[in-house]
């Protein structure tokens, strides 16, 4: 059964076909809406009129930056776990006859 997610951006509803399970798709869509709201909030006091496209691009860049940072941290964590595991195995091998 196809699932659809509807979000509100710039006062308009947008409906998308969900590629993942409904709850996950809703969470992802809500995250996007919140990121767009954050960017909009940063520009509410400016006299220049920022376009909707610029807001969406800025939100996308913020989300991508978070994603890249999380991937980097995950990689560092996996490397640390691997090194610690190797050291632990080495210690066990030395102490257990």
- Strand arrangement, major sheet: 1-2
| Overall residue-averaged pLDDT value | 91
Q: What's the tally of helices?
A: 2
First and last CA, distance: 59 Å
**Poorly predicted runs:** none
What is the chain-wise order of helices and strands? EEHH
Shape: elongated
Radius of gyration: 22 Å
Number of E-type strands: 2
Counting helices, strands and paired strands, the structural category is alpha+beta
The largest sheet is: 2 strands, antiparallel
Percent strand? 5-15%
Helix coverage percent of residues? 55-70%
Q: What oligomeric assembly is this protein in? A: single chain
Can you give a write-up of this model?
There is one protein chain. The chain has about 100 residues and is of the alpha+beta class. The chain has helices at about 20-40, 50-95, and strands spanning about 5-10, 10-15. A two-stranded antiparallel ribbon has the order 1-2.
């Amino acid at each position: 059964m196809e699932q659809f997610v509807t979000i509100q951006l710039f006062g308009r509803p947008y409906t998308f076909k969900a590629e993942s399970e409904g709850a996950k798709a809703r969470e992802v869509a809500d995250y996007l809406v919140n990121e767009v709201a954050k960017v909009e909030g940063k520009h509410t006091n400016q006299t220049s009129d920022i376009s909707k496209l610029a807001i969406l691009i800025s939100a996308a860049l913020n989300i991508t930056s978070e994603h890249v940072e999380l991937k980097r941290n995950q990689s560092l964590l996996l490397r640390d776990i691997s090194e610690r595991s190797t050291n632990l195995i080495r210690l066990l091998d030395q102490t257990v006859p």
